[in-house]
Structures
1.
Amino acid sequence: MTYRFYQPTKIHFGCGQVNNVGDIVKRYGNKCLLVTTEDAPPLNDLYKRVKEILRDSGIDVWHFDKVKPNPTVDIVEAGIRALDACNADLVLTVGGGSSIDTAKSIALLRGQNLDWDYYFDNLDNPFGDYEKLGDMPLVSIPTTAGTGSEVTQAAVISKGDDKRTIFHPDNFSKEAILDPELLLTLPRSLTASTGFDAFSHAFESYVSSNSTPLSEMYAFEAMKIILDVLPRAVEMPGEIKYRQALMRAQMLAGTALANGGAHAPHPLSEIIGGITHISHGEALALIYPEFIHVFKDEHAQKFDRLGDLFEGDLESGVKSFLESIGLYRKFDDYQVSKDQKDQIMTCPVLGFLPFGSKEKLQSVIEKSYNR
C-alpha cells in the first residue's frame, strides 16, 4: 500500500499558550495584520489581550475586524487592501472558521488577479499539485473546537448564494496556537454546532475514498473523543477538561480531513448554508442521518465499523447523538421556505459532485426536508 500524509503546521497546544503569541509571531516579522470578526463582545477582550502581548513583544499590529460568518469575496478583497496598506510581514488570525478562512484567502491571494470564478473552478481539488501562490506567513489561533481550519488547506468563501471552497497547500498555517482556555466563553449552541462540525470532518474523511491508514487513525480517535465529551461540554461548558479534549479532537479531525478529504455532507451543507444562511454545523446536522441512510449500501463495511462507536445501528446512533446535543432539528425549525428548498434541490453543483448521482444527493436533501 502507498499513500501520502501531509501536515506542515506547527502546533502549540495547551492552556495559556496564547501568551506565547508574541514569540511565535516574531519569527516571521515585526509587522502583523490581525484578522478577526468585529472588535466587540464576546471576543474583544481576547483581541485586546493579543494586541497587548504583540506590542509588548515589539510588533506593530493593524487590526482588520470586518470578518462575518460565511465570509464573502468582498470581505477578502477588503482584507487584501488592508494588508497592502499596512505592508505587514505576516497575517495573524484569532477566531473561528470564518476568521481563519478569511485570513487564509487574504494571505494566499494578495498580489494575485482576483478572478474568483477561476479560483473556485480550478483550485477545487484538496490534493491538487498547485503552483505556489502565496508567500505571506499565516499564524492561526482558533477560538472554537470545530472547523480545524488551522490545520487544513481549505478556505470556504461565499459569492452571492454560492459557497465554495478554495484548496491550496499555501493555505496551511505556518503555526497554530490551540489554547483550550479560549473555548470557555463559547456558548452551548456554538459548542454543539462546532463540535458536530469536527465530528463530521472525522466521519467523512474516514469513509472517503481518499482515506489512508493514518487519516483513518486520526479520524477514528477524533470521533471517539467527540462522542464521549461533546454532550458533557454542552451541559458543563465551564469544565476545562472537556474543552481540552474537544480542542484536541478538532485538530485530529482537521488533520484527517486535510489528508482524507470530505464526502457528500460537506458540499450539501455548503449549498444549504449559502442559500438559507444556516450555520455550517447546524446545516450538517440537518442532513447527517439521512446521508447515512441513503449511502449505507455503498459504505456498508466502514459504516458497520463506525456503528461500533454507537454500540448498534449507525443511523439511529447519530440521530441520538444529535438529540443529546440539541441539534436534531427540521428545516421548518429554521423557517426554510419552499422557494429556498427548490433552490437547494436544483443547485447546479449537485450535478458535478463526485460523491454520487444528482438524484442520490437530492434524495438525501428530500429525506432531510421531510424529517
2.
Amino acid sequence: MRKTDLSSLKEAAPRVAITMGDAAGIGAEVVLKACSQEFLRHLAKIVIVGDAQFLLEFAHRFGLYSDFLIVDSVKELEGLDKPAVYDLKNLPLDVEMGRPSAICGKASAEYIEAAVDLWKCGVIDAVVTAPISKKSLFMAGYQYPGHTEFLAKLSGVQRVAMSFFVENLRVALLSTHLSLSDAIKLVKKENLIEFILFTNKELGKFFPRKIKIAVAGLNPHASEEGLFGREEREEIEPAVRHCRESYGLEVYGPFSPDTIFLRAFRGEFDVVIACYHDQATIAVKCLSFGKGVNVTLGLPFIRTSVDHGTAFDIAGKSVADPGSMIEAIKTAASLVLMQKEARSLT
C-alpha cells in the first residue's frame, strides 16, 4: 500500500466492521489484540461483529483489550465513535476451542451476513474478516468454499477475484483454489483479456490515474521466447497486446515470474496479475510473511482479510500473531480514503 497521511485518516476515520470469525479458532484473539493498538482506533471506527460475551470473557482471561460499547441495533451505531461490539448473542456459554463444529460454523456465517447488512444500511464503510473454518461452515449447512463466494452471493455480484496486498505489492489472481493442471488450462487469451480489464476497473477505483499492470509469465523465465512453453507466445502476449492497443491500458508482459513481483514491490508497477494461486502467495509471503492482506476485488464494498486460517492448533492459548489483522484493518481504512480521494479527482 502507498503511505497515507495518518492525520487525515484520524480525521476521516472510516467505520470498519470486523467479523469475529470462527470462535473455535484464533479470530477473536487477533481481533482483540489488533484493537489494543491505539493507533488503529484512530485510523478506524471499529465495530466488531460477533458475540460480546465470548469476546469479553476471552479478553478478561488473557488481559486483552475490552473497552467496547455493546450494541445490538443499527440505530445505536449511528454516530458512534468509540469501539463497539455488534452483539449477535449466538454462541453457547462454552465453546470447544480448536475443533470444527456446526455451532461455530453457523455463528461465523451469521457474523458475515450481519456485516453485509450493516453495509447495506450505510453505517459502515468497509468489512474486515477474521478466519473461518470451511469445515465448520459446511457442517452448519452453508455450501460456500470460503468468504469470497459467500460475500459475492450476499452482495449480489457475479464476478469477484482474490488479490493480496503487501506494502507496494498488489497481486491479482487469475485462478485460486484449483489444481495446478486445471489452473494452467485457464491461461487463455480470452480469460486473460477479461481478467486484465476486470483488474484495471477494480483497482482503478483507488487511483486518480491510469494504473500500471504487469502480467507474470506462466513458465520459467516467461518461456524464453518459446523455449520452455507456448503459453506466453500464444495466449499471454496476445492478451496483453489486445488490452493495450484496443483499450489503451498500461499493461505489460509477460514477465519472468521469478523477478516481476519484486519489481512491483519496489514500485515499478501498481499490480501484478499472477497466473495461479501459489505463484502469487509464495511471492507475497516470502516478501512479508504475516503482513499480507487478502483484498476481494469486485464486491460493491471494500473487504480485506488476514492471510492465514483459523490455526486451530494454537486456538485459545493467546499466542497468535495479530500482524495480518492489524494490516487488514489499516488497509481497509486506507482504501476507503483512497477511493474517496480518487472519486474527488476524477
3.
Amino acid sequence: MRYLPLQQIKENSILAIPVYNDTGSILLNANTILKRAYIQKLAVLGYAGLYIYDDISNEIIVTELLSEQLKRSTVQALKSFNLDSCRLMAHSIVDELLNKSDVSVDMVNIASFDNYTYIHCINVAVLSVILGIGMGLNYTQLKELSEAALLHDIGKVNISIDILNKKEKLTDEEMNIIRSHSQEGYNIIKDNFMISGLVKNAVLSHHENEDGSGYPRSLIGKHIHIYAKIIHVCDVYDALVSNRVYRKAMNPADALEYLMSNSYIMFDVSCVKKAMEYISPYPTGITVELSDGQEAIVVKQNHVHHLRPKVVITKTKEKIDLMKVFNLTIVKIIT
C-alpha cells in the first residue's frame, strides 16, 4: 500500500486503510473500490489523502497502532463527554500499546476536518504514551499520562466552531478565547475525585513553554510537570501534520524539524529527542525524492536510523536500503 494525496488518487483505486467519520465509525472500509463520487465527497469532508493499493506497493505493509474498536469506542466516549469512559479508554490505549512489539509512529494522519477534534485527542494520547514508554514511565504513570493527553483539549467543548475553524487570522479577543481552553479544561475536571491531581495539572499546563512564554501561568521549564511537557510536544506535532480548514498539513519531517528548532524555547529537549526516536520522518508508504533525482516509495523503516529507510524506485521498481547505499539520501517528501 502507499499514501497518496486525494487529488492524485485515480477512480477505481482500492482503499487500503479504513476511513473514519466523526463518530468513529468506518465511512469506507478497506478494499473499497474508490468511485469518483467517493473521492469527491472525501475532498469536501477535508481528507487530504488516503492509503491505497497499487502494483508497485502491494508488498508494503502499514499497521495502525490502535484497533478499530478501541478507536471507535474512544471517539464515542469523548463525544458523550463521559469522563469515566474517557479514563477507561485512556487506560485501554496504554494496554494496547504495551502489548505491541513496535510502537513507533509510522503513518500519515488521514483525519478529516469534521473529525479532527476527536481524532486529534486520540492521536495525542497515543503519541504521548509512546514517548512515555520511551522515557521509562511506569504503568501507573502511563495511565495518568494517557488520561491527561486524551482530555487535554476538553476545554474547547464550549468554544464556537467558527472560532476553532476560522480561516482568517484570529482577533486578540478570539485568541484569548482559544487560550482559555486549558484553564476551562481544568475547571471541568478539577472536582472529579477519580482524576489525579497530576492529570488535572497536565491538562492545565499543556501549553506552558520552557522559556516561560506559554499559558495560562507563564511557567518556566523546571516548574512544568513531565506529563505536560510530553503532551505539549505531541499536541503541537499532531496539529502540524493534520490538514485544517485554515492551512494544509505539514509533512512529518518538517514537523519534527519544527520541534527541534523550538527545543529549549517551547519544548523540553528530552521529550523532543524521544519524538525523534519514535516518530518516522518518512512514514512507510509515502513518496520521496532521492538525492539523484529519482522518485521512490518508502517500503520499510530502519529503526536504527529513521532518516535512512528502505525504498523502492517508482520507475524501475529497484529496491534500495539507504543504510547500505551511502551515496543516496532523501531530499524531500513528494506525497
